[in-house]
Structures are given as C-alpha cells and as structure tokens.
Amino acid sequence: MPEIAPGSGVSGPSRLEGVRRIVAVSSAKGGVGKSTVAANLAVALATLGHRVGLADVDIYGPSIPILFGVSELPHPDAETRLIDPVESCGVRLMSMGFFLDDQAPVVWRGPMAMSATKQFLRGVAWGELDYLIVDLPPGTGDIPLTLAQEIPLDGGIVVTTPQDVALADVTRGAAMFRRVSTPILGVVVNMAGYQCPNCGTKDDLFGIHTAEEISRTIGAPVLAQFPLDVRVRETGDAGKPITAADPGHPVSRAYMALARAVEEAVGGVRADLYGAEPVAVDRDDAAAVARISWSDGVVTEYSYAGLRGWCPCAVCQGHASQASFVEADEPRLTGDERVGRYAIRLRWADGHDTGIYSYRWLREIADYGECRPTSATL
User: Fold this and answer.
1) What is the Rg, in whole angstroms, of the alpha carbon atoms belonging to the chain?
2) Which domain holds residue 292?
3) Which one is predicted more confidently, 204 or 28?
C-alpha cells in the first residue's frame, strides 16, 4: 500500500475554549429589533441559571452598551493578553461600542471588520459559558461569513417583522445560514402589532402574517412573537433590558419562553442537520491521490489533478456562472483546513490556497471523470 502523508486529518477552527453552545442572532435587515432580541434572550438564559456571554459583532452599529447601560472600558489581562468582558445583568458582554465615544463612526473596510470579529470571539476571556449569543450585523456580508468560518455554530435565530420587505430580506439571511451549514433554530417575529393600553385595540402596523405563513416562507419554526411595547423601548433606553428591568411584564415572560424554546432547539440539533462531514483527509503523494472519509461512512477519492482542476475559487473560475475545469501542471496537495461546518480549504505546493471546497461540491465532483484516480489508490 502506498505511504499516506502523515498528519493528514481534517484541521480547522476549534470551538471556543470553555464555551458549550454558540448561537448567532441574525436579521439580514436593519431596524427589526435584532439587538433587543439578542440582549433579552441572553438575560433570559442567564435567569434560567445558565452562564451566558453576549458578543456584539455589529461592528458598524453596536447597540449592546446602550441596552445594558455600560460605559466601562474592558481591559486586557496582563498574563493571558485576552480582553476581560464586562458583566451586566448576569451576562458577560463584549462590543465595539465599549471602545468608541458616542460620536465616533467605524469607517473600516471589510478586512478590518473581519479582524475585529475574530478578536471579539477568540481574543476575549469568556471563561466557562453555557451559551455565547452572537449579535450579528444586518446583511449577509463579511462579518457573518467570518463568524461561520471562524467557529462551529450550534445554530442561528432569525429575527424579522411581519412586513413583506423584511421577510424578503430575512429569507436571504436564512439562506446564508443554510449555505454555511448552520441549523436554523427558529424565527422570532418582532413588532407583531401594537395594542393600545387604553382601549385595547390592536393595530398591525407592519402587516399581518400568521406564524404558519412566516414559518413556511423562511423554512423554520416560529419560536416567539413580540408586540410593539413602549416598555421595551423605555427599559432599553434606560440601560436595562426589559427581561431584567421588569421580569413580570408579559414581554419578559415571553422572552423566558423563548429562552426555553432555544434550550430545546439547541438540544435537539443532531449531526444529520449538518449533512455528512469529513472525518479525515488522507494524501498519497506517490499516487497523486486524496481520499476523504465522511461521517456517513462514505469514502471518496480524487486525483490531485481533478481536485485542483475543479477548484471553485474566483482565481480559477473567474465570475462565470458555470464551473469549468482548469488544467494545472502536476499539482501536489500539501494541506487542508476546516472552514466552519461547511467547507475545506485546500493548500497546494505551488502556493495556491484560495480554493474553499464546500462539502456538497466535494461530494459532487467525486463522480467527475477528471477526479477518478488513474493510478494506485490509497
């Protein structure tokens, strides 16, 4: 049997040390109350007895310092060089807002925002946590992608309003989670009507969509619906989420129900929600063949030439809508690393390392003629 390259297991982003569960809160559209939901969910989970952290990676529009009334500046630990989070309402907090004054804009290009996102994840002394809630910025750009690539997420929560425009955007956000193999735990519908405290009349200011309609549109269950309530705004502006400021309020009780639903949804996530994942990547340089062993028991084999030729990166494929095979001169695979829970980045001897092969793409090209080994297999 040909000699297999040593140390060829799948490497990649590890879980945050001491953090059991990581849940991202996304909206894809601004103005739907995503940060309010993230803050109150974190407090509700802490009230249930969990150790909770909240990472505000909305780099350009951080809201968490205001919602928790925190102006304290975090400091790095002299020994570990990690930043100690600030604690409020039983939740450990980290946000770009702690490092800015009220008028300072964050005028950064994508790479700087991506670097800050990594710092707020791995550069913080989170300690032992049962849940780390990550408050994402609107949209589906660099920061959400960096999060998905940097750490294995246990699930995502999608926040929307009943408005048609919001649902259209949020559907794209849900598609982003699926694209990076992150299970969608459920949907939170915010601003679902306003009830007059005097006469009791309910007005559906943002339209009417039933939970069944929203669930069907986004493809995930509705975990909670929250009305427009002036008390939520008042407590948030005062620097204390309503779940902490007024635990007996109906909205606070609804957030406690949401926290229990998240507990159940995260606990119910199984590996089959992610699909098959690579267990190991083995390389045989003598035969110029790579073999991937998958979690579902399947083993796929690829010639180096075929694997390199079907590289999906923009350098190899340009911006064509259909992938094409690119010839390479005697390619040799030298390494691999896991990208989130959805892809593998391959490194080649000539320095090419921009190819991020999704698991789905790797399973597909295994049947392509160019990928079939023509010499001895592993």
Assistant:
1) 23
2) 278-371
3) 28
